[in-house]
Amino acid sequence: MSDPNSPEQRERWALILGASTGTGAAIARAVIRDPGLHIFAIHRGHYPDEARHLEDELRATGRRVVIHVGDAGHPDGIRECAEAVRSAMGPRAVGLLVHSISGASIGHFLSTRGDAFHPRQFEKTFNYLAHSFAYWAQTLHEQDLLAPRARLLGLTNALHDDNMLHNCGLIAAAKAALQTYVRYLAVEFGRLGHRVNLLQFGTVVTPALQTVLGPQAIQRMEALHREMIPAGRMCTLDEVARFVSVLTHEEAEWFNGATIDFMGGMTLRLFDMVLRPD
After folding, report:
1. What is the pLDDT of residue 160?
2. pLDDT tens digits for range 115-139
3. Which domain holds residue 101?
């Protein structure tokens, strides 16, 4: 996938699940330029102004762009979205799938206040963060939508590992399931010439995170990460997006079934920060 001017490359698309703002939008901006993929981006319609701005920006590159409003994280929505994908690009055109869907519940398994996780929250969190990756992989294969040597990429964080955050148990469990799906799908797709991987990156400041936390909490978070990360700063959305571009090239073809560490050493100093004297 390294020559953006080849006839094969000009017909390849990136299918980005979750791309109106944040990581998905940044990846769309990166891969439309390098390696020069057309973009089919799906979002749930929560940020219509941002989605329109993204579409205008992407179209200015001269590549084909479709911004589709749909629920790419639910089985019924996936069927509808897949029909739109096939209608827009035809068979064997998806060269890159990026799963950047959010929609998780935070809380606790046990509660004295009656607010423990409900089964609906289990279902939604696992559908959006994990199951939908496998559903899309199945759908793209069954409908013959994957281009030769396609790349399927899930996104994750440090929570699926041994690291814990007190109210993120469901997220951690779903991300662990996603990692397992990636490994098994890598074996099955590997025989067909495709590659399936998981990109693990650290905390990045997205528009959604800024809205949820507010400026003061963002400042505290950035100060903590400056102390925690060896480089003395947080990773940026642009850095994550440009690395996804790297993963589309032939030089990265031997990655398969991997959880690729793009954390910048974010967790290396956790024990040092906890145990050191004041």
Report:
1. 56
2. 899 999 999 999 999 999 999 999 9
3. 7-206+236-268
Is 231 within a domain? Answer: no
CATH code for position 146:
3.40.50.720
Task: Indicate whether 252 belongs to any domain.
Answer: yes
Burial code (b: 16+ CB inside 10 Å, e: under 16) for 127-145 equals: bbbbbbbbbbbebbbeeeb
Domain count, the chain: 1
Q: What is the 3-state secondary structure (H, E, C) of the chain?
A: CCCCCCHHHHCCEEEEECCCCHHHHHHHHHHCCCCCCEEEEEECCCCHHHHHHHHHHHHCCCCCEEEEECCCCCHHHHHHHHHHHHHHHCCCCEEEEEECCCCCCCECCCCCCCCCCCHHHHHHHHHHHHHHHHHHHHHHHHCCCEEEEEEEEEEECHHHCCCCCCCEHHHHHHHHHHHHHHHHHHHHHHCCCCEEEEEEECCCCCHHHHHHHCHHHHHHHHHHHHHHCCCCCCCCHHHHHHHHHHHCCHHHCCCCCCEEEECCCCCCCHHHHHHCCC
Whether 230 maps to a domain, the answer reads no
> Is 222 part of any domain?
no
Q: Name the stretches of the chain with pLDDT < 50.
A: 2, 4-5, 7
